[in-house]
Amino acid sequence: MNHSEELIKIPSKADVRAPMRRPKIHLKIQDSHEHIVLRTAKQPSASAKSLAPKRTPSDKRQEDHKVAGKREAKRKIPVERGAVLPRRKGIPRFFSKRYTLISDKGEGGQGSVYQAKDKLLNIKVAIKMLPISLNLDVAAVERFKNEAKLAMALSHENIVRLYHFDIERGRIFLVMEYVEGKNLRQILDEMTALSINTVLEVAQSCASALDYAHKRGVIHRDIKPENIMISKDSVLKIVDFGTARRIGNPPLKTENAYVEGTPNYTAPEQFAGNNFDPRSDIYSLGTILYELLTGKPVFPFDTPLETIIETPPSPMPDDIHPAIGEVINKAISKDIYDRWLSAGVFYEKLREAVEESRTREAP
Hints:
Layout: H1 3-7, H2 24-28, H3 32-40, H4 46-51, H5 57-75, E1 99-107, E2 112-118, E3 123-129, H6 138-152, E4 162-168, E5 171-177, E6 181-183, H7 184-191, H8 196-215, E7 218-219, E8 228-231, E9 236-238, E10 245-246, H9 268-272, H10 278-294, H11 305-310, H12 322-331, H13 343-361
Antiparallel strand pairs: 1-2, 2-3, 3-5, 4-5, 6-8, 7-10, 8-9
């Protein structure tokens, strides 16, 4: 017995003259357009009713089959297409009971990041989606899960909070704290270089966050201006742990070998595939502070990779105090063993150098 036959009672001959009440469940499965027509159409006259052809139970069943078929077709969404229909204004249609996408915030290390609304808690969140084309890429999914595991183990004021990892209707995504503000790249584009006081504050917040992560065995491995946010409340947040690794663990294997990180800010040992440790993040932080002070990266962005790996950095400009330059140059040494042992030590040495420069400049 099909669905429509279960819902509709076929009257017997004995019930023909008796007024027949239409079951409520019958109206529930009718097509919405037909229901509107029933409400808005003019009532036919008695003569028109007598001339209209009588509907048999067979006709009724056929119409119900068509309505049920239309509804079933609307319900079916192919799994391979996931929950995303063609993009509209840069935002995919994301079918989620809890989250609504608001705007596109750019590309992360392994996917697109969107501002979204958590309808359950009525708060803004950031959602990072793995590209649907990588859903069947075991290595890509494993990297995405690894990012979630590492980031969720960290709770620090200067590290963006990761709420949870989720899979919903074919989409794999992370839900994170939404930071309303600008990243250091946007700030550099507007201001070129920053004052030594501001640079020292950036160094302090970054060093505090990195020391915290390193003591818990996590190396970020992609510290760069785009991954350092400054909120509207002037709180620094390190974001995007997509390439983070546990200390002592080798990089996750992929089908196509590639270097994880951004060339201008990545330590040479990462390119060489050698063992890395917290001093790899210290190198990246040093290159950022160099750029914040001088307004220029250590190497131009079109510099060949071989040059970045082998060539020492350019000397600091004359207007930067030599003591400050020495501290930063030690942080960006090509030899990992020549760098500062920790981010905390790096910051303390930089603070001492700044104080020294002020003492010498005082009359």
